[in-house]
Write a structure and sequence with these properties.
mainly alpha; 2 domains; two-stranded antiparallel sheet; 26 helices; symport; Transporter; Na/ntran_symport; disulfide bond; SNS_sf
Length: 595
């Protein structure tokens, strides 16, 4: 008989905290939260944001961590508490897999920019217009600021007319059509982007190399198990904060910094009447906390049984929100400086996602003294923030698979390598010349929007309605020694499911097709996106129907079987933990069955 290794635990009390910090504090905190604050009325955005945080984000975070800690098993095995919902575990694993395949390309971009920042001498390659990738319409900030249209034209032997148009090689071009070297470096050097998703172009080999480096980094962060990972995260989760505070100090000392910060937080209460504001606030909470992907369950499953996961949840929530606010100061202090320097409105400078990280911010640091230093600092910070989220999400996927099929634990290092390699191959389309379009499709459909909200709804009701909120509270008391506040139980029973359902419905009602800037994706690309979204969420009803159909007996007997907790001895746990697990009623009819 093949011997199954005993399941690992964190080697130190702080390992779990640092892992969660690294996981939950990701790129969304840096490039999405500040922009959403600005876009949706500054301080007004914080009202629905914190309502969602309290009624949805923290309760679900606590639920996932506590569930993992109590069962000591990954995202597939935990559904022994209510077998009919095991499809939720499969859906979470599929979403995590898609996320692993495309999210890491941001690290590849960051590595590419970090390399160019470090290797440049005095001038950053995106600060000038005399490179092979620049167009004739390229103008540096200095040129645009110091010369009128007529001066630019006459200096280049062009002509101008009263409509402020210039002539480039006998082609009429308005001043607004001049492009910045930063944008051209991003689109024509880094991405070499094509005009259409139907034109994938060739592989960008420098990005293939940085993508491979990123995957190697992820592999070596988790290959030796959680005891090794627990030590890695001490550095990978805390080092970005050192860089973040350095950038904060530099940012708030810049001219115009306070203008940017003011625009970030001054409330426009009229925005509260728009449904888009509430949808954006809720989705930001769920996505930034990494809920529904099985990673938090995996991290909690490596805790010792009596660890105070309730206290840790509150500490982590405070840490995460503090990081969001600091990131807002860092980003918008620089955005304010850039707007002041260019003589533009902040609304014309502010951007979200890759546009903020790889266009707006690099353009700003190019105006600072020692630009290579500040640019390298920013992109190294970006890499470490993304790396944490990436390898912890990967760890959640690996844990779910290894706990479901314990034989994989004997060859865990090889299994991790295989997952990394397959994910690398699947992610190659994102580093082609049309890769940005693929990235947008995956980002828009696979791990965001209504599919994740539906998953979270079923995750919540499976515990609170079927397994039983009171029963789960008893389990938590058995672990931490006291009952948490009853507010969290009411969130699980009422507020959180209602929140997820409402937002999912509104997001479908107000659905807008994916687009990249002004580019509208073709219908076939949208169909592919919907197929990707359904690939995860359909696992929930398919598994439930299949499990119910396999049972014997009357309808009521079948229902009882598929909704009854079946947690038995886990061969990968030690004897003390198994003794605790046996206190659960293996033949327990849930509250829903008794209705």
């Amino acid at each position: 008989m093949t011997e199954i290794k005993e399941r690992e635990k964190w080697s130190g009390n702080a390992d779990f905290l640092f892992s969660c910090i690294g996981y939950a504090i990701g790129l969304g905190n840096v490039w999405r939260f500040p922009y959403l604050c600005y876009q949706h009325g500054g301080g007004a955005f914080l009202i629905p944001y914190y309502i969602t945080l309290i009624c949805g984000g923290i309760p679900l975070f606590f639920l996932e961590v506590a569930l993992g800690q109590y069962t000591s098993i990954g995202g597939l095995g935990i559904w022994r508490i209510c077998p009919i919902f095991k499809g939720v575990g499969y859906a979470a694993a599929i979403i995590a897999f898609w996320l692993n395949c495309y999210y890491i390309v941001v690290l590849a971009w960051g590595l590419y920019y970090a390399y160019h920042s470090i290797s440049s001498s005095s001038l950053l390659p995106w600060s000038t217009c005399n490179n092979w990738w620049n167009l004739e319409s390229c103008r540096t900030l200095t040129q645009m600021r110091n010369y009128s249209a007529s001066v630019i034209c006459s200096a280049s032997d062009f002509t101008t007319d009263t409509s402020m148009e210039t002539c480039l090689h006998n082609k009429s071009v308005h001043l607004a059509q001049y492009t910045s070297p930063v944008k051209e470096f991003w689109e024509r050097n880094a991405l070499q982007i094509t005009d259409d998703i139907g034109q994938p172009g060739s592989l960008r080999w420098p990005l293939v190399a940085t993508l491979a480096i990123a995957w190697l980094g992820c592999y070596f962060c988790i290959w030796k198990g959680v005891k090794w990972t627990g030590k890695v995260v001490y550095f990978t989760s805390m080092f970005p904060y050192v860089l973040l505070f350095i950038l904060l100090i530099r940012g708030i000392t810049l001219e115009g910094a306070m203008d940017g910060i003011k625009y970030l937080f001054i409330p426009d209460l009229s925005k509260l009447r728009t449904s888009t504001l509430w949808i954006e606030a809720a989705t930001q909470i769920f996505f930034s906390y990494g809920l529904g992907l099985g990673a938090l369950v995996a991290l909690g499953s490596y805790n010792k049984y009596h660890k105070n996961c309730y206290r840790d949840t509150l500490v982590l929530a405070a840490f995460n929100e503090g990081t969001c606010l600091i990131s807002g100061f860092v980003i918008f202090s620089v955005i304010g400086f850039m707007a002041k320097t260019e003589g533009r409105k902040i609304s014309e400078v502010a951007d979200s996602g890759p546009g903020l990280a790889f266009v707006a911010y690099p353009a700003a640091v190019a105006q600072l003294p020692f630009p290579s230093f500040w640019s390298a600092l920013f992109f190294i910070m970006l890499i470490f923030i993304g790396l944490d989220s990436q390898f912890v999400t990967l760890e959640g996927f690996i844990t779910a698979c290894v706990d479901e099929w314990p034989v994989l634990r004997r060859r865990k290092e090889l299994f991790i390598a295989a997952v990394c390699f397959v994910s690398f191959l699947i992610g190659l389309p994102t580093v082609t010349q049309g890769g940005m379009y693929v990235f947008k499709i995956l980002d828009y459909y696979s791990a965001s929007g209504w599919c994740l909200l539906v998953l979270l709804f079923f995750e919540c009701i499976s515990v609170s309605w079927f397994y039983g909120a009171d029963r789960f509270y008893e389990d938590i008391k058995d672990m931490i020694g006291y009952y948490p506040g009853r507010f969290w139980k009411w969130c699980w029973i009422v507020f959180t499911p209602l929140l997820c359902t409402s937002i999912a419905i509104f997001s479908l009602i107000e659905y807008e097709p994916v687009k990249y800037k002004t580019y509208q994706f073709p219908t076939w690309a949208e169909y592919i996106g919907w197929c990707i979204a359904l690939s995860s969420i359909l696992a929930i009803p398919i598994y439930a129907i299949a499990l119910f159909a396999r049972q014997t007996g009357t309808m009521k007997e079948r229902w009882t079987k598929v909704t009854t907790a079946t947690i038995a001895q886990n061969p990968s746990l030690n004897s003390d933990e198994n003794e605790t697990k046996q206190r659960m009623l293996v033949e327990h009819t849930t509250a829903m069955t008794n209705l």
